[in-house]
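Re: that backbone. Tokens:
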């Protein structure tokens, strides 16, 4: 019998500090903290601008409620809405998925991915897209178990400054 309950919801302005902590945590996990240039203020400005429909990103927050009713942030998934010329429609691009170590293996990541899928259905979007490192076999197996197709494709980056 489960000793906790997982809830996934879209972030609010009050979640920005938790979101920033999670962003720093995933960057540390990948030994890339030096590349995080954003701030909580920038995140707040980009996720909750006036007017709201001009937000540049969104995020889902997973919370775990234990048997005593204590709620703890367990992980997140961040995303943007993009447009595909070929399919002629919008799609969700997931940027990061991260779950704190103590919550891994407890279906938090799965709940985040399923919530992203549900959000797409709600908005009439038919496709999700994200990237995974080729050598991250555990993540690839996880995504395939959820029904995702993994295409091996190179990612190019070009600094324009």
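Recovered sequence:
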């Amino acid at each position: 019998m489960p000793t906790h309950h997982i809830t996934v919801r879209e972030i609010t302005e009050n979640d920005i500090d938790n979101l920033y902590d999670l962003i720093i945590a995933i960057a540390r996990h990948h030994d890339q903290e030096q590349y995080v240039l954003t701030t909580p203020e920038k995140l707040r400005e980009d996720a909750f601008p006036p007017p709201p429909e001009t937000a540049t990103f969104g995020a889902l927050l997973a919370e775990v409620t234990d048997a005593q009713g204590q709620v703890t942030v367990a992980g997140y998934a961040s995303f943007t809405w993009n447009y595909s010329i070929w399919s002629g429609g919008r799609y969700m691009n997931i940027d990061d998925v991260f779950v704190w170590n103590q919550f891994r293996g407890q279906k938090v990541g799965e709940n985040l991915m399923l919530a992203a899928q549900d959000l797409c259905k709600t908005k009439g979007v038919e496709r999700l897209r994200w990237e995974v490192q080729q050598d991250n076999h555990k993540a690839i197996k996880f995504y395939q178990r959820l029904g995702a197709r993994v295409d091996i494709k190179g990612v190019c980056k070009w600094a324009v400054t």
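The CA atoms of residues 114 and 146 lie 9 Å apart. Helices lie at 16-29, 40-47, 108-122, 137-145.
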